[in-house]
Write a structure and sequence with these properties.
This protein is α/β, with parallel strands linked by helices and about 350 residues long. The N and C termini lie far apart (about 55 Å). The chain has 18 helices and 5 strands. A 5-stranded parallel beta sheet has the order 2-3-4-1-5, sandwiched between helices. The longest helix has 18 residues. It has 3 domains: about 200 residues, Rossmann fold (3-Layer(aba) Sandwich); about 80 residues; about 55 residues, no CATH class.
Length: about 350
């Protein structure tokens, strides 16, 4: 399999909400994955790292610079002995006068200390150069990088997804590096990675699990059991749900929740089909459907909640959002100083 094969790319492709990130977290953390990678590395040192692009995160969480910095940090964390070498390589790249230095020298010249103190930000070109030198220097080591959410990458300047793909393909050409990548099946990624023999269409993998999930949820509902005996047409509903979701786990969770409400209300089979067919086929359209269903009277408040959530790097507690109405009445509420004391009943009301 890929874990024991020569250095190559493994591409996991799937629709939004199909479970790519969940699978990547599982794979990158599973002990069996590390066992197989250690067998691949043999007597050589194994270095692993992972990065998850996130388009709602900080600039570094959705940029190529953030990717390279994160992977470099993991390499240095696992191989602290090369930190000196990395500093020397970077200094030689930034300052032509220092290019006569031997990167293997044990002593850092005074001007190098000054240069590194002033240069906290790494450029894309610096990072790629350091990677090339480091991978060649650590040729007796094996590297495996798990990189998720390529479609959530946000371009920096003139960079676009093609530039990201180019960088990844260059990394994959090094004989001691292998990459496990995950993204939506966009053309730019299909053109770059379909030629590899290691490609997984995630919906093909999850279809049986989705069927079991839907069947289990319906069969545990008392009303479904009763309706199934009285109206055999209900037996086809599970298969219809699985066909409609097309392998998107998040979508099936949301739809099944609504259909179970229909069972609770004793909806006839015709109404259950109407419930199912009212949902858009893809997740983004479903979210748009949810937003469109918000009464116009509440949309201003909803927009404020979204703006607050998007402006935060870390999630806020649920009770914080309960003060949105209070801020509308008193914009200086949060500047008054002191703590706001809430009784249990006040929290329940919020």
């Amino acid at each position: 399999d890929w874990l024991g094969a020569q250095s190559e790319v493994f591409w996991i492709k799937g629709k939004a909400g199909s479970g790519k990130s969940t699978l990547m977290k599982f794979l990158s953390n599973h002990p069996e994955t590390l066992n197989h990678l250690r067998a691949w590395a043999g007597n050589q040192q194994l270095i692993t790292a992972r990065f998850f692009f996130w388009n709602s995160g900080t600039a570094l969480q959705k940029s190529q610079t953030g990717l390279l910095r994160s992977l470099l940090f993991e390499i240095l964390r696992q191989c602290p002995e090369v930190l000196h070498y990395v500093c020397m390589v970077r200094a030689r790249f930034k300052d032509p006068e220092l290019r006569c230095l031997n990167p293997g020298s044990e002593h850092l010249p005074r001007q190098l200390d000054h240069l590194l103190d002033e240069s906290l930000d790494w450029s894309h070109e610096e990072l790629v150069h350091v990677y090339k030198c480091l991978v060649h220097t650590k040729a007796q080591s094996k590297f495996c990088f798990f990189i998720d959410g390529l479609d959530e990458f946000k371009a920096e300047g003139a960079q676009d997804h093609r530039e990201l793909v180019s960088t990844l393909r260059e990394l994959a050409t090094w004989p001691n590096v292998k990459l496990c990548l995950a993204s939506r099946p966009w053309t730019v990624f299909a053109d770059a990675f379909t030629s590899t023999k290691w490609v997984l269409q995630l919906e093909d993998l999850t279809k049986p699990d989705i069927y079991r999930y839907v069947s289990d949820k319906f069969m545990k509902h008392d009303q479904y059991q009763k309706l199934l005996k009285a109206r055999p047409g209900y037996s086809d509903l599970i298969g219809e749900v699985v066909r409609k979701v097309q392998g998107v786990f998040l979508w099936v969770f949301l739809v099944v929740r609504d259909l179970l409400d229909g069972l609770t209300y004793n909806d006839p089979i015709k109404t259950m089909h109407l419930r199912l067919n009212q949902f858009p086929d893809d997740l983004e359209s479903y979210f748009q459907h949810m937003i469109d269903s918000i009464p116009k009277f509440y949309r201003k408040e909803t927009a404020q909640v979204f703006q607050i959530a998007l402006s935060r790097e870390e999630p806020l507690s649920l009770i914080t959002y309960a003060f949105v109405d209070d801020l509308a009445e008193d914009p200086n509420l949060g500047l008054a100083g002191g703590d706001i004391e809430l009784t249990s009943s006040a929290i329940d009301d919020k």
